[in-house]
Amino acid sequence: MKTAVIVFPGSNCDRDMAVALERATGQAPAMVWHKDASLPAGLDLIAIPGGFSFGDYLRCGAIAARSPIMRAVVEFAQKGGHVLGVCNGFQVLIEAGLLPGALMRNANLKFVCRDLHLTVGTSDSPFTSAYRPGETITVPVAHHDGNFVASDAVLAELRDSDRVAFRYVENPNGSRDDIAGILSDNRRVLGMMPHPERLNDPALGGTDGGRLFDSLASALVRA
Amino acid sequence: MKARVHVTLKSGVLDPQGEAVRHALGALGFDGVNGVRQGKVIELDLDETDAARAETAVRAMCDKLLANTVIEDYDVEIAG
Question: pTM value?
């Protein structure tokens, strides 16, 4: 399984993401700089890591979403490629139009940085097949702008099409419907604020996040 | 030609920063402030000399980058 991690100026979870991907797939991902115009050939998955791309200028993820490599990422996703966006990566995917809604400043205006409980919304995706629906898992969050906002119609569509991948048990940021992560229409793009790559080793305090990468490894190796 | 873009949150979108400012104003003794909405002003210096063309271009910039039209509205002001 061939993977890539996109690196922007201000990305700071790219190495953690690379470690998590290598652990699950046995192969180190290609690290792709934002100014590159094309992706390595034959990719199965692209990961957009957390961080503060371009200093969060204008809006979180807005500048990164218009960088040269993102044209190739959008094209990859439109052709059915798998894309994972975590934290700032989720903001980038929304700004790039690959996922609906918007991520606003946390309702309590505080930067939240701690382990949180999430409920798995669906196991029907290549990202979540190793979880049971309704299961509670522990994954850390670290963000200032994770308050998911979408119209009633978009929320209803996400619910009705079983595209809410994760919900917060205790909502830390004001997100509508306690949404922590959502899937695209074809279920091959996942954006989430919590950081599964930060909890994938017993030495780090847990492995609940690692199962997301295990899900991907088994789904994409079979594919 | 100069352009000024005002980006504001759409009505109905909760503005936690504006709410915090409103509370702080109350704490300073400014009574009677019923609502605060925070936005952005973006000033552009353009080569374009035709006002209509400038406005069309700036609106395209707003739709593509300067505003997130899921949650924000914008106004464009062209000044010679």
Answer: 0.94
Number of domains in chain A: 1
Cα–Cα distance, A107 to B39 (Å, whole number): 16
Q: What is the ipTM of this complex?
A: 0.86
A112 touches chain B (CB under 8 A): no
In angstroms, the separation between the Cα of residue A32 and the nearest Cα of chain B is 23
The beta-strand segments (E) located in chain B are 2-9, 40-45, 72-79
Cβ contact A77:A184 at 8 Å:
yes
Low-confidence ranges of chain A (pLDDT < 50): none
**Nearest residue on chain A to B12, alpha-carbon basis:** A151
CATH topology of domain B2-79: Mth169; Chain: A , (3.30.1280)
- Rounded CA-CA distance B50/A186 in Å is 45
Contact A213, A221 (CB under 8 A): no
- For A155, the domain range is 3-222
Q: Which of B20, B66, B70 is the closest to A102 by Cβ? A: B70
Task: Give dist(CA B32, CA B38) in Å, integer.
Answer: 18
Q: Are A13 and A51 in contact (CB under 8 A)?
A: yes
